[in-house]
Design brief:
heterotrimer; A: 106 residues; Helix Hairpins; 3 helices; 73% helix; elongated; C: 677 residues; mainly alpha; two-stranded antiparallel sheet
Chain lengths: 106, 505, 677
């Protein structure tokens, strides 16, 4: 069986879905972060897949791959900041249960 | 000269306002001084008036004319002139204003305001009689309103505010209708406020469409003006402001109100409505005669039922003005001459009556007719003046009102004999309520409450004597006043009644 | 013929009145009452002298008219009214009577009013009255006559209510004036109709001479559907009923007895009330053109004569008897005028002036002596104390009863004869006249007897003080009694061999009158004598009856009254006419005036105040609309925005997962939108 574009898309869609579910339904802030990571990586896979298997004609394009590296870097930075925020919140609230962090409510 | 006559009272306004309020006598005498120039000029005009000129609708027939452009963009002129219709009124106004300052001697608070308002009122009155431009007439007419409102509303009796507002709004309502007519005339007759020009325009073909109905322009305007003037006369049913205004106003203001302001309405009709709309006048004169009849009889009967002395005199004024209206409606020279003469005579007689009521009120502090009795034995001089005034009011021959009432009734008979018969019963009713009042107040045993009532004093006599002399002298020799009127009135009658009917002399 | 002195005749009393009226008070205080009385009497006497002069001049003047014009009163259009006086024979008779009798009454008043504080006022008004009456009779036109007409009304008001501190007396004066005014209403309405009818023929005038010349134009004219001349003359007659106290306007005269007795004598006996008779005489040419009106005049006169006489039968106030007697005699005068016998009416006017004035003054003398007692049931037997009063009263009584050869006989019988014989007359009128004469004789004798004869019924205290009046009062009485005796001799009819100088004197005035003047045939003379005998017999019958009832059988009156109680009550209460008028006219007018005043205050003023309230209501509504509707919209908008905001802010849950979900949801929507659109 030839691995085509759709295989990668299905993979990234599944990953994205898992990531969304994790974001929405988990209470632990770190777990929500994991979900965000999953989502981001899913998006990166999408980029690379479309770059490799997308419409080609002429010289091979590497835009998607480059963008994938961007995403990885961004994910890393963002994860660092997010973890820092979570640690700060933990210092204040002694809890990182997302359900309890509602002080921005109207 | 007419400007001097009209505005001379204003000369003392500034000195009055500058005088300290405690110096009451200075203020009073200044006010007297303010009315003197007008009186002197009026007498001078009386002497030098050319009695053969008619005026009315001929600009050349007016005397002492001033005609200057004022607000050019609207063709408004400062146009004043005097003719036979207005000269007797000017004399009356000047004389009564002069006497009323003396009658106001009893006012002791807010003198500066009082006299300022009064002098302003005099300006308004004189100007109204002299104005020959409709806009100018309207302005002077309105100038009269505001001082009256204050004079009644501040220096009046217990219900002064009600009376003042009622008077003001009622009269203003009429003025508004007059304003509408004035503007309508302005636009229809070629953008002019000049009364003489308005008279020369032919309105018979003009119509007005209002709410889907078509009416004659002339008739509609006549009705509007009539209502406006009728409120001032006052005619039934627009008369109810008068009893309240008279009762609540201070003595001198009542005198001026009855003596001069009431004449404005009739004068306005003669000066404006009749010459501008002769056809409408003929059309309306039957209704006017009926209104006159109601005024005379209804006014007399209402007077009979009053227990307040001033209200009685107020209703008697309504009754007497009915004679004026009858004369005006009759369309005969006798009637019209009688009407203006009655205006003059009524001015003097009613002025006397109100002055006399004021004398009594100042002493007894009430005007309840049933609360007096037998005053003649205590105050014979006052009683004699009152008797003179009462008999003049009921039209005793030998006194001035007989001549004017006779002329109006005689004139009325020619045109409306049946209505005139009813009007003539007015002389019976007049005798009834006047003599009954005389009896209730002066005859019979002396009411012990008033055993010490002071007799009339010299100042009060001074205000009464000129009027008494006029009443007696004009009864036997009415020429001084009749000669003034005759040419203009005859001309007016010819002007209005010559269309469609043989002019009756 | 011009006579410039004429205007002095009315002017002198006017000066007297003005002088006494204005200066009398201070004058009286300083110099006492003498100067006032001298001036007052002197001016009237001077007028009398001038009147006599006018009378003499008249006889020699051709035509028999004197006139003078003072000035034009007013002139408007075709109406010209002059202040002018004219004396023709009729006026001459009147001015002689007015000034002559007036002078005697002035002299009498000096005694009667000697102790009254208002002395100068009295004489001022009395002079004014003479002035007004003279103006009335000397005026050359209707308007001058009307000045005098109302002027005498004014003076009667002033003099009847002279003692004004007594409310009843003041009210009597007011009643007189108002009832007269009703008559005046008729007078001027007639004047108007006359003027305009003439105007239509181009000859409008009020002057009597001119009226006479142009009156013929009015034949056949109509107004309100009836003949114009009849209308005019009836209107004038209404005025006459007011002034001369005929039915229905006589009610003021009995009440007018409230005034001082000399006033009653002058105004209500001799002069003022005769104004109506004079007026008809002056306008006789008009009445000749309106037989219907003449008939009305005659019938009203006859009925009044009878009516008043019946009331006089039972009155107990000496002045009231004389008052009703006056009304009755005036009725007789109108009867004469109404049958076209104008000269006879005027003749009776003159003789009546003499004997009635004498009667009133004598009554005044009695009242004066009895200290203001007027009830004859409390008198009696006074002739022993008041001889001169008694004799004069007797003479005057016989005169009024119509006993020859006294004055009343000639004048009354002439009227009765003319009532029978004139084309306007009828035997029925004669019968009524004769009955009236009989009744007159009866009640006058009753009065005489009860006052002067028999036993004195007053208390002893009063009897002690009864004294004859002073010369100032008795002298005029004697003179008047003398006139009452001889006054009729100027009018002795041809039937008795005379020439009737009076009628001839007045002939030029009444030219063309329908009553035959002085023509006498044997047959008519005989008839006249028969009728005369009948009426004299009637008078004697009345006298005899009175004598029987009050001298020989004093209990008879009491028994008659007991038997005819109802009739007696009706007569004593004057047929309740005053009460009827009070209940209907007076009460009606007052009710109407109160109703109208209420109507004015509630309905008419209610409309005005209602508009005020309506305007305030409208302004309240306007304010409410502004506050709740217009402003409500503005506020509502704000609330809407707030609501939306409130709704929207609920999205801020603070729960992170919600925000994430919202993002994802938004992405899905975006993709869908991009895909489908």
């Amino acid at each position: 069986m030839t691995v085509g574009l759709q295989h990668y898309l299905i993979l990234s869609a599944a990953l994205a879905a898992l990531g969304m579910i994790a974001m929405v339904s988990r209470r632990n802030a770190i777990t929500i972060l994991m979900g965000i990571e999953l989502l981001l990586n899913a998006a990166a896979i999408n980029f690379v897949a479309f770059s490799r298997y997308g419409p080609s004609g002429g010289a091979p394009q590497f835009g998607g791959q480059v963008f994938g590296i961007f995403v990885i870097v961004l994910a890393a930075a963002e994860a660092a900041i997010a973890l820092a925020i979570i640690i700060a919140i933990y210092h204040h609230r002694s809890s990182i249960n997302a359900d309890e962090l509602q002080s921005m409510q109207r | 000269m007419l400007s001097w006559l009209t505005f001379s009272p204003l000369l003392v306004v500034v000195p009055i306002l500058l005088t300290p309020s405690e110096k009451k006598n200075v203020i009073r005498w200044l006010a007297v001084l303010g009315t003197v120039p007008a009186l002197l000029l009026a007498l001078y005009i009386f002497g030098s008036f050319d009695r053969s000129l008619a005026g009315v609708n001929e600009s050349a027939g007016f005397q002492y004319v001033i005609q200057k452009d004022w607000i050019r963009s609207f063709h408004i002129q400062y146009y004043m002139g005097i003719d036979g219709l207005s000269v007797s009124m000017i004399l009356l106004t000047a004389l009564l204003s002069f006497l009323c300052i003396f009658a106001s001697w009893g006012i002791d608070r807010g003198l500066k305001g009082y006299f300022t308002m009064f002098l302003l009122l005099e300006v308004g009155m004189l100007g109204t009689f002299l104005a020959l431009d409709f806009f100018l007439f309207y302005i002077f007419w309105e100038i009269m309103l505001l001082p009256m409102y204050f004079l009644i509303g501040i220096w009046g009796g217990p219900r002064k505010v009600y009376a003042a507002i009622k008077f003001f709004l009622f009269t203003l309502f009429g003025s508004v209708l007059m304003l509408v007519a004035m503007l309508a005339l302005y636009f229809k007759a070629g953008h002019s406020f000049n009364l003489i020009e308005l008279m020369s325009f032919d309105y018979s073909s003009e119509t007005v469409r209002l709410f889907g109905l078509t009416m004659g322009f002339a008739k509609l305007m006549f009705i509007l003006l009539f209502i406006g003037f009728a409120i001032k006369v006052p005619t039934f049913p627009f008369h109810t402001w008068l009893p309240d205004a008279h009762v609540e106003a201070p003595t001198a203001i009542s005198v001026i109100l009855a003596g001069v302001l009431l004449k404005m309405g009739a004068y306005g009709m003669m000066r404006i409505s009749f010459p501008i709309f002769p056809d409408a006048t003929l059309w309306f004169s039957g209704a006017l005669a009926v209104i006159a009849m109601i005024n005379i009889v209804y006014g007399a009967l209402c007077a009979m039922a009053q227990t307040d002395f001033k209200k009685l005199v107020a209703y008697s004024s309504i009754s007497h003005m009915g004679f004026v209206l009858l004369g005006m409606a009759s369309g005969t020279t006798q009637g019209m001459n009688g009407a203006i003469l009655q205006m003059f005579n009524h001015g003097t007689i009613t002025a006397m009556l109100f002055l006399l009521v004021g004398v009594l009120y100042d002493r007894a502090h009430h005007r309840d007719l049933d609360g007096f009795g037998g005053l003649m034995s205590r105050m014979p001089v006052y009683g004699s003046f009152s008797s003179l005034a009462f008999f003049a009011a009921l039209g005793l021959p030998g006194l001035s009102s007989f001549v004017s009432e006779l002329l109006t009734l005689l004139g009325g008979w020619q045109t409306y004999p049946a209505i005139t018969i009813v009007c003539t019963t007015g002389i019976i009713l007049g005798a009834a309520y006047m003599l009954w009042t005389l009896q209730r107040v002066f005859l019979g045993p002396l009411n012990p409450r008033y055993a010490d009532l002071p007799e009339i004093n010299r100042r009060e006599v001074f205000t009464l004597v000129p009027l008494a002399i006029l009443v007696i002298v004009l009864g036997f020799y009415p020429h001084p006043v009749l000669d003034l009127l005759r040419t203009s009135t005859n001309h007016l009658v010819d002007l209005v009644w010559e269309t469609g009917r043989v002019s009756v002399h | 013929m011009p006579a410039a002195f004429l205007w002095w005749i009315p002017a002198l009393p006017l000066f007297g009145a003005a002088f006494n009226g204005l200066l009398g008070g201070p004058l009286q205080r300083r110099f006492g009452k003498r100067p006032v009385t001298w001036i007052a009497c002197a001016v009237v006497f001077a007028s009398f002298v001038l009147s006599v002069q006018a009378f003499w001049l008249l006889s020699s003047a051709e035509p028999h008219v004197l006139e003078t014009k003072l000035w034009t009163w007013f002139q408007v259009g075709s109406l010209q009214a002059d202040f002018a006086f004219r004396v023709d024979p009729l006026t001459a008779v009147m001015i002689l009577v007015v000034t002559g009798v007036g002078f005697l009454i002035h002299v009498y008043s000096t005694g009667y009013m000697a102790r009254d504080a208002g002395h100068y006022r009295y004489f001022a008004w009395l002079n004014l009255f003479i002035f007004a009456m003279l103006t009335l009779v000397m005026g050359s036109n209707l308007l001058m006559m009307f000045i005098g007409w109302e002027g005498v009304g004014l003076c009667s008001y002033l003099l009847i209510g002279f003692w004004f501190t007594d409310l009843q007396k003041a009210q009597a004066g007011m009643k007189a004036f108002i009832v007269n005014r009703i008559g005046d209403f008729g007078f001027i309405v007639g004047g108007f109709a006359l003027f305009w009818a003439l105007q239509r023929h181009g000859v409008a005038t009020f002057d009597f001479v001119e009226l006479r010349q142009v009156a013929g134009n009015l034949v056949g004219e109509r107004i309100f559907g009836i003949d114009l001349v009849t209308f005019v003359t009836l209107c004038f007659f209404v005025g006459a009923t007011g002034k001369s106290a005929q039915i229905p306007l006589y009610v003021w005269l009995p009440d007018a007895m409230a005034g001082p007795t000399p006033v009653s004598a002058l105004i209500h006996a001799a002069t003022m009330v005769t104004a109506g008779v004079y007026m008809i005489g002056r306008l006789s040419f008009l009445y000749d053109m309106a037989p219907v009106a003449l008939g009305v005049v005659a019938v009203v006169g006859a009925v009044t004569a009878l009516f008043a006489a019946t009331i006089a039968l039972v009155q107990n106030d000496i002045k009231k008897v004389l008052a009703y007697s006056t009304v009755s005699q005036l009725g007789t005068m109108f009867l004469g005028m109404g049958v076209g016998a104008y000269a006879s009416g005027i003749f009776h006017l003159m003789t009546h002036a003499f004997f009635k004035a004498c009667l009133f003054l004598a009554a005044g003398s009695v009242i004066h002596a009895m200290h203001h007692e007027q009830d004859i049931t409390k008198m009696g037997g006074l002739r022993q104390w008041l001889p001169r009063t008694h004799w004069t009263f007797l003479v005057a009584t016989l005169a009024i009863a119509g006993i020859p050869p006294l004055a009343g006989f000639f004048s009354k019988d002439e009227i009765l004869w003319k009532a029978w014989s004139s084309p306007h007359g009828s035997p029925w009128l004669w019968v009524m006249g004769v009955l009236g004469a009989g009744l007159t004789a009866f009640y006058m004798l009753r009065l005489l007897i009860l006052t002067f004869y028999g036993r004195c019924r007053a208390d002893l205290e009063t009897q002690h003080h009864v004294r004859e009046s002073p010369a100032s009062m008795t002298l005029p009485l004697i003179l008047l009694a003398g006139l009452a005796f001889v006054g009729g001799w100027v009018g002795i009819p041809p039937a008795l061999g005379g020439v009737n100088r009076f009628e001839h004197f007045l002939a030029p005035v009444f030219e063309g009158a329908h009553a035959p003047m002085g023509e006498s045939t044997h047959a008519s003379n005989a008839l006249e004598n028969v009728l005369m005998a009948v009426s004299v017999g009637m008078a004697l019958l009345g006298i005899a009856l009175a004598h029987r009832m009050y001298v020989r059988e004093p209990t008879l009156p009491g028994r008659l009254v007991a038997r005819a109680r109802g009739v007696y009550r009706m007569l004593a209460n004057k047929f309740w006419v005053d009460e009827l008028y009070a209940a209907t006219l007076v009460a009606g007018t007052r009710a109407a005036s109160r109703a109208l005043a209420q109507f004015d205050a509630r309905v008419v003023d209610g409309v005005v105040n209602g508009t005020g309230h309506a305007t305030r209501g409208a302004s309240w509504v306007s304010g409410a609309i502004d506050r709740y509707v217009v402003d409500g919209l503005v506020n509502g908008l704000g609330s809407l925005v707030r609501a939306c905001g409130g709704f929207a802010s609920r999205l801020q849950t603070g729960v992170i997962q919600n925000y994430v979900l919202a993002v994802f949801g938004g992405v899905v929507v975006l993709i869908a939108v991009m895909h489908f659109f």
